[in-house]
Amino acid sequence: MMLRALALLTALMLAAPVAAQQFPTPPRVAAPPPEQIVAGLSRDDVDITTSFDGSDIIIYGAIKREVPIPPGPLDVIVTVEGPAGPITVRHKERRFGIWVNTGKVSVASAPNFYVVATTRPLAKILDPAEDSRFRISVPLAIRAFAGAAEVDDVVPYTEALVRLREANDLYRLDDGAVLLAEQTLFRADVRLPANLIEGYYATRIFLVRDGKVMNTFRAPIEVRKVGLERWLYRLALEQPFFYGIMSLAIAIAAGWGASAAARQLQRR
After folding, report:
1. Which of 38, 71, 76, 189 has the fewest CB atoms within 10 Å distance of its CB?
2. Would you say the pTM of this structure is higher than 0.70?
3. Highest-scoring range by mean pLDDT, 2-6, 49-53, 246-250
4. 19: confidence class by pLDDT, cuts 50, 70, 90
5. Rg (CA), the chain
6. Among positive and negative, which fits the CA dihedral 146, 149, 154, 159?
7. What is the C-alpha separation between 57 and 203, in angstroms, rounded?
């Protein structure tokens, strides 16, 4: 009996390491970043009415820390990006007295609205590699191209697209528009123009130290038409035939009213 007990005990001791190896190692939990963004928006929705002339969004927050403030400059970058969609950029030249298309580039995805606000000039606070990774600057907001390009160099076309939308206040770089106090509290006032489209707008906040993105924060903003604007918008999308008839009737009535007013003025 004693020999059997010793043999059983020896077998259990030899099998113990093997059994222990069968249990999976618990996954390591990543440590939270030493600095985290805690932020909010003054409003998370914008209503477009017949008298809509733009809106202001206040983006504010603080830097949460469990350790003393690290050395080195701290910066905050805020971006607001509107709905993206495809667009074709064409180049025209005057030949034999006629303007003709000489090239085009099809962009698969470009936001309708994009603004970047920073504490300091963007080129001085963000490494190009980090910019390419997070697609922060205005040119990098244009995501991809659709199909093979018909021109040798697409850069002039994307630059033209950026210039056109900057002229319409749809693309904007606001260096120094983010206020940062004591490397802890920040605030950015972002102006939304009157020519917005419906959809969800993405707000991103980047915490940057020594050119590197240390932490990010995201929040949505819903932009929607209300009242008569929404009714006409939905009618044009869902019932284009009736929308066309109504538009034609309004045009005829307006023309008849202007003609009648002109005749009345001539009689006086």
Report:
1. 71
2. yes
3. 49-53
4. very low
5. 30
6. negative
7. 11
